[in-house]
Amino acid sequence: RARRLRQHYGVSYDAPAGLAIRLPETMAELVGEEIWLVERDGLDGRWRPGETRRFLELARDFARVSRFDKFFADQRPLYELAEARARRVIERDMDLGWFDRFFGERPGAGFRIVIAPLLGGHNYGPRRVTLGREELYCILGVWYSDRDGRPAFSREVIGTVAHEFNHSYVNPLIDARRREFAAAGQRLFPHVEKELRRQAYGHWSVMIIESVVRAAEVRYVAHARGAAIARREALAQARRGFPWLPQLAELIEVEYEGNRARYKSFEDFMPRVVSFFDELGETMPAPEEDTVSPRVVELSPPHGAYDVDPALTELRVSFDRPMSPSYAFVGGGETFPGRPEGSAPRWSEDRRSCVLPVRLEPARQYRLSLNSALFDGFRSDEGVKLEPREWTFSTRE
Length: 397
Prior knowledge:
alpha+beta; 45% helix; globular; 4-stranded mixed beta sheet
């Protein structure tokens, strides 16, 4: 079932962490009504209500059959060791008051750090609002161990913790100005797309969020460990696919932190962040179309949509440039959309959009691919093929 959720709805990376923070302390305590409450509590849209309910029923059954509570109790000494080692580093070097001072006050917010050994080098920053109280999480992986294989933590973990807590502050600010960032984001993303996709950052909006989160992380490192280490961190982030990170961190230091009488909170500074990316986008040339793969700029319905009207009669894909007249909608079986008899895909006059007539059914999961290893009909006018792109969605009942 977990594999199915990943394949059909993209339930991966931070999505399981977002569900986990909404569950009772033990799965045995999870009853039907609580399962429904979990679904309504601001859960990531990748978790569809019916699928979530069934997954949690299976997880609860697994916990019972495997006697997971006994396993968890047996491992308690290892967990306590991990917590104690992380606590020594975090309590010595972590200043939780910095977040309100830097971003602006967040009354009633509480900070929670959860050690998650199976995540390795992955870390996540979900948040939950319940009964008027906001809980900000850092789900912290474990990527170091001692010579006996037991979890270990160094001072470098401080920047990671700051990074994940930053998400709870930054994400809502970027989401509120998504349209203002769109032009610059779409122009910049192709220049770093290959590197960012390797890190599962597949959209320009995620690039913007991660840029601001990481720049704020640099500023926290400067606060906690000094300017020299902060400069090294900014350069490391530049090598990870964010080449503008040193300039953005410097902008925040000089114009924001240096002028807090004018900027009472980071939200007040957001117009300047927008203009930074606008100016950056203007200085970077558009990629050469004859050497860079075409890009999908819009899918209708969007990839991962879970409440599509079954009465929809057309799927539409739009590209960033004119395409050749060929196409390749790839798939088969029950998950491939049916087509009205005698219909065929058609291109818009400028050949930037291709429409696939469909006949959908309610409460169904659909999956297709634009191009594949064997079929590559989607090509630019110059003959450059589209890199295979998955497209999934589900219809409502």
